[in-house]
Amino acid sequence: MSGIKLFKGEFKKKLDLLIAPQIKAGFPSPAEDYLHESLDFNRDLIKHPEATFYGRVDGDSMEEAGISDGDIAVIDRSIEPMNGDIVVAYINGEFTIKYLDLKHEKDGYIELRPANKNYQPIRINEFDEFEVWGVVVWTIKKWHGATF
Protein backbone atom coordinates (compact mmCIF):
# COMPACT_ATOMS: atom_id res chain seq x y z
CA MET A 1 0.00 0.00 0.00
CA SER A 2 1.22 3.51 -0.69
CA GLY A 3 0.96 6.01 2.07
CA ILE A 4 1.76 9.69 1.85
CA LYS A 5 3.45 12.16 4.21
CA LEU A 6 1.88 15.62 3.82
CA PHE A 7 3.56 19.01 4.04
CA LYS A 8 2.70 22.58 3.06
CA GLY A 9 4.99 24.24 0.53
CA GLU A 10 5.67 27.84 -0.18
CA PHE A 11 7.25 29.09 -3.38
CA LYS A 12 8.24 32.74 -3.17
CA LYS A 13 11.08 32.70 -5.68
CA LYS A 14 10.92 32.34 -9.41
CA LEU A 15 13.30 29.80 -10.93
CA ASP A 16 15.15 30.48 -14.17
CA LEU A 17 13.87 28.29 -16.94
CA LEU A 18 15.93 27.59 -20.03
CA ILE A 19 13.62 27.30 -23.00
CA ALA A 20 14.78 25.95 -26.34
CA PRO A 21 12.78 26.78 -29.48
CA GLN A 22 12.13 23.05 -29.81
CA ILE A 23 13.04 20.37 -27.29
CA LYS A 24 14.64 17.34 -28.96
CA ALA A 25 15.42 13.94 -27.52
CA GLY A 26 18.71 13.77 -29.48
CA PHE A 27 21.71 16.04 -29.20
CA PRO A 28 20.85 19.75 -29.35
CA SER A 29 22.67 21.97 -31.76
CA PRO A 30 25.11 24.27 -29.93
CA ALA A 31 24.14 27.05 -32.35
CA GLU A 32 20.49 27.20 -31.29
CA ASP A 33 19.29 30.33 -29.56
CA TYR A 34 18.00 29.71 -26.06
CA LEU A 35 15.60 32.01 -24.24
CA HIS A 36 15.62 32.59 -20.50
CA GLU A 37 12.27 32.91 -18.76
CA SER A 38 11.21 32.19 -15.24
CA LEU A 39 9.22 29.31 -13.84
CA ASP A 40 6.86 30.43 -11.12
CA PHE A 41 5.25 27.40 -9.47
CA ASN A 42 2.36 29.47 -8.13
CA ARG A 43 1.61 30.91 -11.57
CA ASP A 44 2.41 27.94 -13.79
CA LEU A 45 1.53 24.84 -11.77
CA ILE A 46 -0.56 25.84 -8.77
CA LYS A 47 -4.10 27.11 -9.41
CA HIS A 48 -5.15 27.40 -5.74
CA PRO A 49 -2.03 28.11 -3.59
CA GLU A 50 -4.02 28.45 -0.38
CA ALA A 51 -5.51 24.96 -0.86
CA THR A 52 -2.42 23.21 -2.24
CA PHE A 53 -0.29 20.81 -0.23
CA TYR A 54 2.54 18.46 -1.05
CA GLY A 55 3.00 14.85 -0.07
CA ARG A 56 5.95 12.48 -0.33
CA VAL A 57 4.76 9.09 -1.60
CA ASP A 58 5.69 6.13 0.57
CA GLY A 59 5.22 2.80 -1.24
CA ASP A 60 4.74 1.29 -4.67
CA SER A 61 0.98 0.82 -5.07
CA MET A 62 0.75 3.53 -7.78
CA GLU A 63 3.79 2.53 -9.86
CA GLU A 64 1.82 1.68 -13.00
CA ALA A 65 0.42 5.22 -12.92
CA GLY A 66 4.00 6.54 -12.94
CA ILE A 67 3.98 7.46 -9.24
CA SER A 68 6.89 5.90 -7.37
CA ASP A 69 8.14 5.68 -3.82
CA GLY A 70 9.72 9.03 -2.91
CA ASP A 71 7.87 11.11 -5.52
CA ILE A 72 6.20 14.32 -4.42
CA ALA A 73 2.48 14.65 -5.12
CA VAL A 74 1.00 18.13 -5.54
CA ILE A 75 -2.47 17.95 -3.96
CA ASP A 76 -5.26 20.49 -4.48
CA ARG A 77 -7.90 20.33 -1.75
CA SER A 78 -10.25 22.76 -3.54
CA ILE A 79 -10.96 20.49 -6.52
CA GLU A 80 -14.12 18.38 -6.48
CA PRO A 81 -12.93 14.77 -6.90
CA MET A 82 -14.32 12.86 -9.87
CA ASN A 83 -14.37 9.21 -10.84
CA GLY A 84 -10.92 8.17 -12.06
CA ASP A 85 -8.99 10.97 -10.33
CA ILE A 86 -5.87 10.13 -8.40
CA VAL A 87 -6.65 11.27 -4.87
CA VAL A 88 -5.16 11.40 -1.43
CA ALA A 89 -7.72 9.80 0.85
CA TYR A 90 -7.98 9.54 4.60
CA ILE A 91 -9.35 6.15 5.59
CA ASN A 92 -9.62 4.76 9.11
CA GLY A 93 -6.76 6.87 10.46
CA GLU A 94 -4.34 6.63 7.53
CA PHE A 95 -3.62 8.59 4.36
CA THR A 96 -3.25 6.78 1.05
CA ILE A 97 -2.90 7.74 -2.61
CA LYS A 98 -5.09 5.83 -5.10
CA TYR A 99 -7.48 6.11 -8.03
CA LEU A 100 -11.01 7.07 -6.95
CA ASP A 101 -13.61 4.61 -8.30
CA LEU A 102 -17.19 5.82 -7.85
CA LYS A 103 -18.87 3.24 -10.13
CA HIS A 104 -20.45 1.38 -7.20
CA GLU A 105 -21.72 4.41 -5.30
CA LYS A 106 -25.36 3.41 -5.93
CA ASP A 107 -24.56 0.00 -4.44
CA GLY A 108 -23.47 1.63 -1.18
CA TYR A 109 -19.69 1.57 -1.56
CA ILE A 110 -16.82 3.12 -3.47
CA GLU A 111 -13.33 1.82 -4.11
CA LEU A 112 -9.83 3.16 -3.98
CA ARG A 113 -7.86 1.43 -6.72
CA PRO A 114 -4.10 0.92 -6.76
CA ALA A 115 -2.03 1.04 -9.93
CA ASN A 116 -0.04 -2.08 -9.14
CA LYS A 117 -1.31 -5.60 -9.74
CA ASN A 118 0.22 -6.74 -6.43
CA TYR A 119 -2.40 -4.78 -4.47
CA GLN A 120 -6.16 -5.14 -4.13
CA PRO A 121 -8.68 -2.28 -4.27
CA ILE A 122 -9.79 -0.83 -0.95
CA ARG A 123 -13.55 -1.02 -0.55
CA ILE A 124 -15.08 1.92 1.36
CA ASN A 125 -18.54 1.67 2.88
CA GLU A 126 -20.64 3.66 5.33
CA PHE A 127 -18.86 2.17 8.36
CA ASP A 128 -15.42 3.46 7.34
CA GLU A 129 -14.00 6.76 8.51
CA PHE A 130 -13.33 8.20 5.06
CA GLU A 131 -12.59 11.49 3.34
CA VAL A 132 -11.15 12.39 -0.03
CA TRP A 133 -8.52 14.77 1.32
CA GLY A 134 -7.48 16.21 -2.05
CA VAL A 135 -6.93 15.59 -5.75
CA VAL A 136 -3.43 14.99 -7.11
CA VAL A 137 -2.77 17.52 -9.88
CA TRP A 138 0.97 17.03 -10.43
CA THR A 139 3.77 14.76 -9.36
CA ILE A 140 7.42 15.67 -9.02
CA LYS A 141 9.86 12.87 -9.71
CA LYS A 142 13.55 12.61 -8.91
CA TRP A 143 15.60 11.35 -11.86
CA HIS A 144 19.21 11.94 -10.79
CA GLY A 145 20.43 9.00 -8.80
CA ALA A 146 17.42 6.86 -9.73
CA THR A 147 18.08 3.13 -9.94
CA PHE A 148 16.67 0.77 -12.53
Task: Describe, in plain words, how this protein is organized in 3D.
The chain has one helix at residues 41-44; strands spanning 3-7, 15-19, 35-39, 52-58, 72-76, 86-91, 94-101, 110-113, 122-124, 130-140. The protein is mainly β. The chain has a domain at 3-10 and 48-140: Umud Fragment, subunit A, CATH 2.10.109. The strands form 2 sheets. The chain has an 8-stranded antiparallel β-sheet with strand order 1-4-5-10-6-7-8-9, with no helix packed on it. It is globular, with a radius of gyration of 18 Å. The relative contact order is 0.22.
Class by SSE composition: mainly beta
Counting DSSP E segments of at least 2 residues, the number of strands comes to: 10
The quaternary organization reads as single chain
Characterize the main sheet: 8 strands, antiparallel
Q: What is the first-to-last residue Cα distance?
A: 21 Å
Strand residues, percent: 35-45%
CATH C-level class of the domain at 3-10 and 48-140 is Mainly Beta
Blueprint of the fold:
Elements: E1 3-7, E2 15-19, E3 35-39, H1 41-44, E4 52-58, E5 72-76, E6 86-91, E7 94-101, E8 110-113, E9 122-124, E10 130-140
Antiparallel strand pairs: 1-4, 2-3, 4-5, 5-10, 6-7, 6-10, 7-8, 8-9
